[in-house]
Structure formats: structure tokens, C-alpha cells
Amino acid sequence: MKNHLRELRANKGWSQADLAEQLDVSRQTVNAIETEKYDPSLPLAFKIADLFDLKIEEIFVPNKTK
Amino acid sequence: MKTIFQKPPSKWTVIFTGLTWAIVYFLVRRLLNNDQLPQGWSIVLALVPIIPFAFFLAFMLANLRQMDELHRRVQLEALAIAFPLAMLLFMLLGLLELVIQLPPQDWGYRHTWYYLPLFYFIGLGVAWRRYQ
To answer: What is the DSSP letter of B68?
Structure first.
């Protein structure tokens, strides 16, 4: 799944560690989400959306299926 | 969930209890190799590593429960790799036992269990590579 987390975080001027602290996850988790190697669970996706005051689908974009 | 811990143990606490267990294990093994103890005491001594292992397990589980979702997934994938590898090892040893005499000084329980943590660490390495 694609996402805009890196841009959103950069816009706020936060480091990965800052974001991780606010989401109560590790910095590695934030990095894995940003690099699209890991898709967060629904509760974490809601938490991220809440933090940026956006809808989940404005942050996470599913890969197109055939 | 109720926990016996005031605060979750750190990774270093888990490593420390793991090392304590390993040291106790090697001490017990050395003492049992001496062959000077009466059999009853030897059996009791052979069971002593259960105590530090129980602490290690409790700390490890408490640490696991405080991990975030990615770390838990990595642990799950590590075990998903380690468990079939362990099955494969014992299956192959079992089959080989049918056709050749495996030397017990190399392939007894006290030698083969070392492979299980090794498989876990291989699994951990493979799982982490995926998410880095």
C-alpha cells in the first residue's frame, strides 16, 4: 500500500522519532510504514489519521488491482 | 491483562535473565559431568535451570506484550521460520537414526537444542531484513 506519511510528517517538521513517540510505536515502525514495507493495522492507521486530522484514505492509497 | 511487573522489562533485562539462565545451564552441565554426585541429587541439579528459565520466560513475555505491532510481527515471522526448521532438524535426525548410528556425544538432546535458538535468530534476521 502506498502512503503519504513521509510528506505529512515533513510538513509538520517532525522527525521519525517524534512521530513514533506520538503514535506510541518504535521509530523502526514509522520508517517501515514510510518506506511502504509494512502496512499498519487498522487501529494504528486510525491513530495516524487522527494525528494529522485527515481521513485514512487521504494518507493510505491501496495498490491498484487488475 | 494483570502483570506481575510494575513496569515492562527492558530488552536488556530480558538479555540479562537469558544470560543468567545460560550461565546456570553451563554450570549445571559442568557439575553433572563430574559424575561425583548421588543420582538423586544429580536429577535435582539437572532440573535447576528451570528456575532461571522461568524468570527469562516471564520477562520475555512481558517484553513481548509491550512491543509495538511491527516488532510483534517480526517475532511471529521469526518463530514461523524457526519452528519448521526445528521440525525439519528432528525429522531428519529421526530418519537418519534409522539408517546410521548417530554418535550421542554429538547428536544427543544436550547438543541438538542449541540449534533451536540458532534457528530463532536466523528467523529474526530474515524477518528484520524484510522491514528495514
So the answer is: -
Q: What angle do CA A33, A37, A38 make, to 5 degrees?
A: 55
ipTM of the complex: 0.89
Cβ <8 Å between B131 and A38: yes
Q: Do B73 and A29 touch (CB under 8 A)?
A: no
List the domain boundaries for chain A. Answer: 2-54
Q: B131 to chain A: which residues are within 8 Å by CB?
A: 28, 32, 37-38
How do the domains of chain B map onto residue ranges?
A: 1-66, 69-132
What is d(CA A31, CA B119) in angstroms, rounded to the nearest whole number? 26
Which pTM value belongs to this model? 0.84
Q: What is the fold of A2-54?
A: 434 Repressor (Amino-terminal Domain) (1.10.260)
pLDDT digits (tens, 9 = 90+) for B35-85: 788 889 999 999 999 999 999 999 999 999 999 999 999 999 999 999 999
Q: Which residue of B has its CA nearest to A30?
A: B70
